[in-house]
## 1
Amino acid sequence: MYDEIPSLLYVAGALITVLSWTLFAFSKTIRPEGRRAFILCLSVIWILFFASSTLALVPYPLFEAYSGFMDPDVLDFYDQPVIRLLPAVTCGVNLCVSAGCSMVLVGKRSKR
């Protein structure tokens, strides 16, 4: 059971990220007409970034805590360099997407 917790948390964070950015990108009702709506949109963008990044980074400490209870095959899988870099890459992509969405939102707001 312990060997599934880190991967489940990471997959949950990745799914929340993909789903939220997809819904945010295709939502035609989000238009920053007022100051409140503008601040709300920026807040939602960065709350999504922090929530998804937290879910992406939490599995690493859990993996370290549960490593004594895991099978050797699972330990070998999690010790691969690509698997260890995946949360950091995910957070980097989230940061780029959040910054890009924020700049687009600010650009639309400043054109008015």
## 2
Amino acid sequence: MKNLKPEYNKSLIYARLGFDKKRTGLSGPMRDEAEKLIKKAENTLNLTGAYRIMNLDRIDPPKVILEDGTVLSGVRLAELMKDCDQAIIMLATGGSKIMELINRLQEEGRMSEAVIIDAAASEITDSVLDMVMLHVNQMLRSKGRVLTKMRFSPGYGDFDLEQQRELYRLMNGEAFGITLNEACLLIPEKSVLAIAGISGNRPK
């Protein structure tokens, strides 16, 4: 799934920036400038999404064991998966150009612009996972199956960031131009991995 144009919620971008409509709204000119920068982020991103569905071998809280023997661990993850028999591993990346733009703005001292574009890029890249989940859910519903409403990414709660290695391997992140550094951070920075569960009646 390449060159994606997902729908996204601008209010979530403003929330990342510390604004809300009731208490800390932006004035007209500032809002106009922010809207232009959000659009610039959208146009600079080269969004790609992918997913892989795998069977669950078993759940032994806090461990979730996949069909290939991969062991993931997290109390909340195990709770999310307790009624599931499959997992979906997802990937989204915004490509390298967006970080080149952000870095250039920072080097030029245009920090406020860089911050807005950074927040927009993060939210828009996350929205690719929403798009993937919607697409997969539509396919599953025709078979009487459904995705969990939530998804977890490494670094969320007790789903340790080091488990990014496992999801990266399962998704073959390198094939999407993503690398994983020693700190288990994804490069380009605007990249994300996540897991959700699948439950319901499986066709015989």
